[in-house]
Task: inverse folding
């Protein structure tokens, strides 16, 4: 499935580059100030909440709210940052970033399959504070190049790994934020034990985020106690009966309203 998505993404980006060349909007890009990593570092625990309406494997996840409404709920209940999907497989679009930024002061991660430097410029132009880089679909050369381009634009990168091999590759780069994805890319099942298995190999220099498969406050607490800096949660929030209360629980607000 991942290979299929990336193949389609390469075609999409090729069309975008022809229809809207970088030269048309590069002058309008305002350099960022790395506010995504700052927001995460300044708190003892970070919740990156996903404005996620659909999944490639499960289809519709949330029909009761829009991305903007989810963003407002997350912001009011203790989220540190937001993740906004811009890929069609998640019913996302680039315009969602500006729409969400209009209703929240929180920093925003663009969640997409970045396979071309063009998308990094596009992300900052759209207002993203950070982008996701997936080690499984990038070569070492591409990772280093994209980290460099992002740094030039004042844009943070959350570099995602799934295996020990990928983690060791990423730790040879300048990556500061590293996300351990608990989803098996072959079966698409999730298990947070993947984070615990890879943690002993993590450098103390990185800021570690656990992604996917985090279902409740108990999972969040286990990860925090193990030394993880924060979590990225989508399905566990949008499928909750009370999204606001679940946000508070994942943010470890301990029953009190977070701000």
Result:
């Amino acid at each position: 499935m991942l290979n299929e998505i990336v193949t389609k993404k390469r075609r999409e980006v090729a069309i975008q580059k022809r229809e809207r060349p970088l030269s048309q909007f590069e002058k309008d890009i305002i350099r960022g100030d790395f506010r995504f990593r700052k927001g995460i570092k300044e708190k003892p625990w970070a919740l990156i909440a996903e404005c996620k309406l659909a999944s490639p494997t499960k289809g519709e996840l949330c029909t009761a709210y829009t991305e903007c409404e989810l963003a407002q709920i997350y912001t009011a209940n203790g989220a540190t940052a937001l993740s906004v999907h811009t890929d069609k497989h998640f019913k996302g679009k680039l315009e969602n970033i500006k729409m969400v930024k209009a209703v929240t002061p929180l920093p925003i991660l663009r969640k997409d399959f970045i396979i071309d430097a063009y998308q990094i410029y596009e992300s900052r132009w759209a207002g993203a504070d950070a982008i996701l880089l997936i080690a499984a679909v990038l070569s070492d050369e591409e990772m280093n190049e994209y980290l460099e381009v992002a740094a030039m634009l004042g844009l943070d990168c959350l570099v995602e790994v799934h295996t020990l091999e990928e983690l060791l590759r990423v730790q040879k780069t300048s990556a500061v934020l590293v996300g351990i994805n608990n989803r098996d890319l072959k079966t698409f099942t999730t298990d947070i034990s993947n984070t615990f298995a890879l943690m002993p190999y993590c450098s103390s220099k990185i800021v570690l985020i656990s992604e996917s498969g985090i279902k409740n406050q108990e999972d969040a607490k286990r990860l925090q106690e193990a030394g993880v800096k924060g979590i990225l949660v989508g399905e566990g929030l949008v499928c909750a009966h009370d999204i606001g209360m679940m946000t508070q629980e994942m943010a470890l607000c301990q029953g009190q309203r977070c701000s």
